[in-house]
Write a structure and sequence with these properties.
By secondary structure, this protein is an alpha+beta fold. It contains three helices and eleven strands, in the order H-E-E-E-E-E-H-E-E-E-E-E-H-E. Strand 8 and strand 9 form a beta hairpin.
């Protein structure tokens, strides 16, 4: 059997092998360049990662404050907010005109469910108000100021609240007030929510009554849209004397910080005769002093008394 083969010369074989070697070297160079480029890209990505902050507080516009001071009260200068799974908390910085260390502010928290379990620090927990807890808060927010808790019962349009007053070493009058707003009846299926309010105020020229006015007249300006959110409880009934006969209504005095009780209807009766008030303690009248006869001057005639 005969086979036909094309003979390959030595020079042609050498040229072919040299071409293969050049192609292999070019391919290795391209792979090396690609590897260096990928390394540079990865190094650039590692140095230009997203910038993160350790604090979870973010600043929001003053118009987003959960609580607004009364008209003419201290102005809102900044609002720091932190969001949780079950609510939100804010530190509402107010304008400060005092030499006392610290910032005037509202500390407000909204919680939808205080019993929500979580292993992380992403659930808002609102504790019950106790004297020890309030004392620690005042020591933290009024360093070196002797704050005295008031024993008077006071309440604003959201319910009762407590307060303490003191005077700093710089002579400023300071006020700390606290309030917790929650439904008066426990919720069975959906919790109604809780609002916690703290107010820290110091002023060089204001009185205690003027500082207390901020706690009486502030307004809660935010709410949750779902139907279960109702920390204020059921609305109060309409007064029975409203629109009724023989139930006059008078305007309250200007500048009064305590609301007067509503006027109840009563039967008009003749007023009894007015008797002047008498003192129950009688003071004995002082005995008259005896009049000493005047002595005549020497050298003058004595004038006889009239008949």
């Amino acid at each position: 059997m005969l086979f036909y083969s094309h003979p390959l010369t030595d020079s042609a074989f050498l040229r072919l092998r040299k071409g293969w070697r050049k192609r292999a070297q070019g391919l290795l160079g391209a792979l090396k360049t690609l590897s260096l480029t990928a390394t540079a890209i990865l190094a650039g990505c590692s140095t230009q990662s997203e910038l993160r902050f350790a604090s979870l507080m973010t600043e929001v516009p003053p118009s987003k404050a959960l609580v607004m001071p009364p008209p003419g009260g201290p102005a809102v200068v900044a609002v720091l907010q932190r969001t949780y799974k079950n609510g939100v908390s804010q530190e509402i910085a107010l304008s400060t005109a005092s030499a006392t260390v610290g910032q005037n502010a509202f500390y407000v928290s909204f919680a939808t469910d205080v019993e929500m379990p979580s292993e992380n620090d992403d659930v808002l927990k609102i504790r019950r108000i106790t004297p020890d807890r309030i004392e620690r808060e005042m020591e933290d927010r009024f360093p070196g100021v002797d704050m005295r808790t008031s024993l008077y019962y006071v309440q604003n349009k959201y319910g009762p609240f407590g307060f303490a007053t003191g005077r700093s070493a710089a002579g400023d009058v300071c006020l700390y007030a606290w309030q917790q707003i929650e439904p008066n009846t426990p919720a069975i299926i959906v919790p109604g929510g809780i609002v916690s309010v703290r107010l820290r105020l110091c002023d060089a020229d204001a009185t205690e009554e003027q500082l207390l006015r901020t706690m009486y007249a502030f307004s809660i300006s935010a709410y949750y849209s779902h139907s279960g959110w109702n920390p204020f409880g059921d609305p109060p009934p309409v007064p029975h004397q409203l629109g009724g006969l023989d139930a006059p209504s008078f305007p309250l005095g200007m500048g009064s910080t305590v609301e007067r009780p509503p006027v109840r209807p009563s039967v008009t009766r003749a007023a009894p005769p007015r008797v002047p008030a008498r003192s129950t303690v009688r003071v004995p009248a002082a005995a008259p002093r005896p009049v000493e006869p005047s002595r005549p001057l020497e050298g003058y005639p004595i004038v006889p008394p009239p008949p």
